[in-house]
# Entry
Amino acid sequence: MQEERKALAKAKRIVVKVGTSTITYPDGKRNFSRIDRLAREMADLQNQGKEMILVTSGAVAVGVDRLGLPGKPATIPGKQAAAAVGQGVLMHTYEKIFADYGQIVAQVLLTKAESVDRQRYTNSRNTFMALLKQRVIPIVNENDVIALDELKIGDNDNMSALVAGIIDADLVIILSDVDGLYDADPQTHPEAKLVSLVTEITPAIEAGAGGVGSLRGTGGMATKIQAAKAATSSGINLVIAGGNVKDSLSRILAGEEIGTLFVSRENRLQFRKRWLAFGARIKGSITVDAGCVKALRKAGGCSILPAGITAVEGSFEPGSTVSVKNNEGRELARGLVHYSAAELDLIKGCKSGEIEDILGHKTFDEVIHRDDLVIL
# Structure
């Protein structure tokens, strides 16, 4: 067994993406047998202590079937109308079947705005984290009903990588009508072999990815390779596997060589900390007292509470990256703040228990959580 495959057993937070062709029949009707197997397996993994997130396609296809249309509409309003109908039908199906296995689910609709706007990105992350803390399985789809071209992510393969990045997932599993990446097009080369492991996505792999897969879907191997690049660059492993493989999720996590594993380039924490330290735009700074400085220098560091803050500089909003300095102006760390500069001016030096009395609300006890802080 490959060492990289064995390591997948340690994955705790897992994003599973299912394509339209995996959960519907060619006529667009729901494949209840596949949906039931998927729900049972995800609920079982959740019961084992994993944190499961489902990214689902199929809303337009299900809407087309429910409306009795001859095929997928050609216009954007037509597709959005089908999606509006299909999302409700699909979510009802998931809710009912997951409930049979004692699992609560929640619908989350996203657009590209959640990935480019820092505050919306942070709000999305906070919502996901709250759901996972409550042991709820988020079911994610693109908000096709309102998304215009400039706001569309475009396919749920890339959506799965975006969600994985937002929540710091350990693994993405894309279940599709293809069994994985082949060394040639299996439709034109019967001798083509499945590639079990990819450690680097080369230009040749990208060039050979081809176009759209099934007529009911929006993505083919090309979008899956794009998703793999995004995930692995963020320190997240990604597997592409056939949606018709029995117990595929459990078997992948057990290390079986199912589908194609794209190995992350580096440890997720290292990547995240490097981004915090060197990739993010610094929007301002906070100055902390000697007690906080001492705590930051200890092994493992600490979260920064309002009580330790003596000064605030700059104009920034929650989710911004700020510099953390000592009283001499020396930069000690960088991190993501939970409060705006104006709010921090009001609560600096105060105890966490006083935040709500001062601001009228309290998002977090911490100004910067230790997980969102890198010591320089």
About this structure: The chain is about 40% helix and 20% strand. Residues 211-219 have pLDDT under 50 and may be disordered.
